[in-house]
Amino acid sequence: MPVVSRLVSIPLRIAEIAFAAVVAGIIGHYLASLDGISSWAQARWIYTEVIAGLSILLGLIWLIPFSSGFFSWPIDILISFAWFAAFGILVDALHHLSCGSIWAWHFRGDAVCGRWKAAEAFSFLSAIVWLVSAIVGLWFTYRVRDHGAGTTRRRWGRRGAPAV
């Protein structure tokens, strides 16, 4: 297994876990404290919480140093898209609050706006990190496939004898 791929992959997986934990903590706090809100609003937060929990679980599993973790890039892309959807949900919810622009991620001032902005920022960052992790996995997958262990490709995908 290439050392460079592993050295890039480990910090990405740690960042995925950390960002998901931040979002899970903020959204979980609000889910526990909110009463009497509409079912659509609860569904938004539950979706975000499920994506955060799934990200923590998959990040922990794929943090174990096996090369098979690099071949999970399609799932990394799906999780990235799910995080982009969660970011969109948070942006839509913050649109109704008077917290300023969606891209103004300063966490000073109003505590409620600061927490929501933090959840928004970390959901976006998590989507980006999962996408970069998928790109690293894709790069590793095609690099390994193109640089086989001294074998040649025959017709119909069967491996031939080692090259001389």
How would you describe this protein?
- Strands 1-2 form a two-stranded antiparallel ribbon.
- Helix content is 69%, strand content 4%.
- It has helices spanning 3-33, 39-61, 73-95, 111-146, and strands spanning 151-153, 159-162.
- The radius of gyration is 20 Å and the shape is elongated.
- It has one domain (3-162).
- It is mainly alpha-helical.
- The two termini are 23 Å apart.
- The longest helix has 36 residues, at 111-146.
- The chain has 4 helices and 2 strands.
- Helix 1 runs antiparallel to helix 2 and helix 2 (39-61) runs antiparallel to helix 3.
- Strand 1 (151-153) and strand 2 form a beta hairpin.
How large, in whole angstroms, is the Cα Rg?
20 Å
Average pLDDT reading? 80
According to DSSP, the number of beta strands is 2
Q: What share of residues is helical?
A: 55-70%
Structural class comes to mainly alpha
Pfam family, one: MARVEL
Domain MARVEL: 9-136
Keywords: Membrane, Transmembrane, Transmembrane helix
Membrane topology: Multi-pass membrane protein
